């Protein structure tokens, strides 16, 4: 037999009792040997299962029959394994390599960023396209009900005026040739001010304050065209899905989506459109207005007026930028948006 490389102290358990025996491990010619306190056995290295390193915890060498040795001398066992030809897997080696750990952390950060930037929006877009119409209706109605109970009051706008605005907008031509199938809902928002908000089922919520703020009907049509752009691209539903994607995936895995669905209306009411969504809706509105002989600058005009009104709000008037019915909470404004609408 080849020369024994070295010996390492260990605790031996025979697999059939709790008795612990002090033994020593050695290796030679590709075989492991255990001897001490009435134990004398050996086994081919390839038939043994050697646990991975885990901090300072003892490592375990298990025989085919269930007997095993616990080794606390990690350095000594490492040398014994190395000398006997036992190689750690690359995963185990990486766990103890600072360079590999740092590279893994960097890869994880990049993966998270890529997922946030591309994967989650893609998943949300697919989910929005596949969401049943009945569910979309339910979510929109529940959201409208939540608004009505929390912050809105019945509209004071005369019914004939409401009907005239709805007819005027429905008569417009869409730039993508789709029918302008929406339902306008008018409400009074009080101190929360001028606002418009598209719900995924095709409801556009318009406040009396927005109507009062508008210089003329074309400005109102501009806002409605912008909201219609959000509806056509399913922005509200996609944004809601993005915010709930982790919960949706978890619910899909465990087979219970009821708790997620219950929270979606609240998530929709708190959603803030991204600048990319706003640009897309602005571009759609600009095309739609031009098709119907209206300058996109009319939308820019009312947006500018709404921003000026928001800046004049007193700090203690009970409204804030985080209010779900503050137009610029869900529609972030920028000088760039107004310039683009005016062709600047």
Structure commentary:
This protein is of the alpha+beta class and 344 residues long. The chain folds into 2 domains: 7-87, PH-domain like; 131-341, no CATH class. It contains 13 helices and 11 strands. The strands form 2 sheets. The protein has a 7-stranded antiparallel β-sheet, with helices on one face. Helix 4 crosses helix 9, helix 7 crosses helix 10 and helix 7 (217-232) packs across helix 11.
> Beta-strand level of the residues, as a percent range?
15-25%
Count of individual beta strands = 11
The major pleated sheet works out as:
7 strands, antiparallel
The number of domains: 2
Spans of at least 5 consecutive residues whose pLDDT stays below 50 are 316-325
User: Roughly how many Å apart are the termini?
Assistant: 88 Å
Q: Which quaternary structure do these chains form? A: single chain
Strand order of the largest sheet: 4-3-2-1-7-6-5
Q: What is the H/E order?
A: EEEEEEEHHHHEHEEEHHHHHHHH
Rg (C-alpha, Å) = 34 Å
Mean pLDDT: 80
Q: Name the shape in a single word.
A: rod-shaped
Q: What is the SS-derived class?
A: alpha+beta
Percentage of residues assigned to helices: 40-55%
Total number of helices: 13
